[in-house]
Amino acid sequence: MDDRTYTAEATPGETVTVAGWVHEIRDLGGIAFLILRDTTGRIQIKFEKDEMDDDLVETGLGVSRESVVAVTGEVNEEPRAPTDVEIVPDTVEVLSAADTELPLDPTGKVDAELSTRLDNRTLDLRREAGQAVFEIRSEIQAAVRDAFREADATEINTPKIVATGTEGGTELFPITYFGREAFMNQSPQLFKQLVAGSNLERVFEIGPIFRAEEHNTPRHLNEATSIDFEGAFCDHNDAMDVCESVVVAAYEAVAENCGEELDALGIDELEVPETPFPRISYEEVIERINATGVLDEQLVWGDDLPTEGEKALGDDVGGHYFITDWPAEIKPFYIMDHDDDDQLSTGFDMMHPRMELVSGGQREHRREKLIGGFEAQGLDSDAFEYYTKMFRYGMPPHAGWGLGAERLIMTMLDLDNIREAVLFPRDRQRLSP
Fold first, then answer.
1. Is 392 in contact with 222 (CB distance < 8 Å)?
2. Cα torsion angle, 405, 411, 417, 422, sign
3. What's the angle, vertex CA 253, arms to CA 252 and CA 257, rounded to 5?
4. DSSP secondary structure letter of residue 274
5. pTM of the predicted structure, to 2 decimals
6. Nearest to 47 by CA among 29, 22, 21
7. Is the pLDDT of residue 170 over 70?
8. Segment 312-350, tens digit of pLDDT
9. d(Cα 350, Cα 148) in Å, to the nearest integer?
10. Rounded to whole angstroms, how far apart are CA atoms 227 and 303?
């Protein structure tokens, strides 16, 4: 509609055409109001029944909520209106009528279960809070891209259909690829390493990953968005520095540019994480979690960190932090061990007090040791020949990480369920819409 005016731009004294959704209708007898909503806000449409054509009144007040309408009329000042202006309509055109029975209330006055919201995502995103999450998500992705460019990284796109899984195992979605078995990629890990070994050196990607894990928790998805970095001539400390800067940049951008969206989510002020993030060794983490007394059994070297232990430590630290120097035996084959202690890896995790956000480390760039890592973890190195052969041709030291975009959003906005940070989530039960 070339002649359309957004509601936020409607100026007193002008005759405009606005278009959007019928947010609600208030009938006070001789006078009634239609509240029209578009992406910029809402505006009041006033109907003085005795002074208007009956057909115009019937059309404007007979339309169901969430119908799409176009209204043409003069804009007048009205201090009692929600936005201090109102439109007296000359015409009302119903562009698309909505059913009178809605599966959820887009005004947000009546709560709906998350499953109902996800089943009716288009309606759900007409709520201010629902829309706010994805405006913020867009801002985060823009800020992350800018931060990577500041770090001299080039954006890349790697395959999502692969012949082998990044880390082997059974957590893969198989597909048929022209009569051959293939898989949806778990991670861009191996491909971003190959590109970092080229003359591009520092690279990043924001893209989907697929994990066939049978989770059913508020913080796991089977299709997620991973924010990945890989840098040549970087060690694990350099990679942590980049990670820290990217996360802080995301927070700063949202705090500066998303005030209205934060208000819609009930967040008065977004606290930007302080830097530097603490870097705590795995050994110290074990000791500190054990000291909290939250676990029935004490953790020992080599144990995975249970959720309740991570939460207790997060409460103690009180902000984002890194766990460093993980046991070599529990990190993937491509993570380099410390030269002076092969029991310790250069792997790290970056944590929010609620959960893990990032996994990373320095990569093993020496081919013989890389092949040994395959064998130690029971993987067939021949299946990864496309990857390992490039290490014959001069692979520089390199390091990187992967950050879960939805987890970043979930923890930043204190969402109850990670599915709230995804337009159309995929989990064990949900394949549609």
1. no
2. negative
3. 120
4. P
5. 0.94
6. 29
7. no
8. 999 999 999 999 999 999 998 899 999 999 899 999 999
9. 17
10. 27
